[in-house]
Amino acid sequence: MKKSEEGVTLVEVLIALALLSMILLLANSVHLFVQKQMNSQVNKIQVQSDERLAIGLITKEIRKAETVETNHLNELIINETDVYKLKSTTLTKNNEPFISNIKKFTVKKRGNQVTLKIGSLPETIIYLRE
């Protein structure tokens, strides 16, 4: 009778564990990379959404306004009562938070034309009725 060799050796177990560890490490690296990319994209989308919301609301206010003024501090004054300005990354209306995640707010008025730039959106020109 021949002696049967069943089971695995310690070397085979160690090699299998090393291979499994490398595969799991690679899968974890891919997962972390995808997670970082997703978070980055979600943040960019949120910023763009906030910028579009801000420009839409302010444009609507300007079009309904009786008077629109600006000053050298990039403040937009509508109907002599509502003052819009950027504080840090929050656009404020009458010193109350209006919309956050805004990195840039510039406004200029020349004659009956108001030029508005919010964040990375293209410059918007609004013509006032006289």
Automatic annotation (TrEMBL):
The chain crosses the membrane at residues 13-34. Pfam families: N_methyl. It is found in: Cell surface. PROSITE patterns: PROKAR_NTER_METHYL. Its main location: other. It comes from the Bacteria. Keywords: Competence, Membrane, Transmembrane, Transmembrane helix. The keyword Ribonucleoprotein does not apply. This is Prepilin-type N-terminal cleavage/methylation domain-containing protein. It comes from Bacillus seohaeanensis.
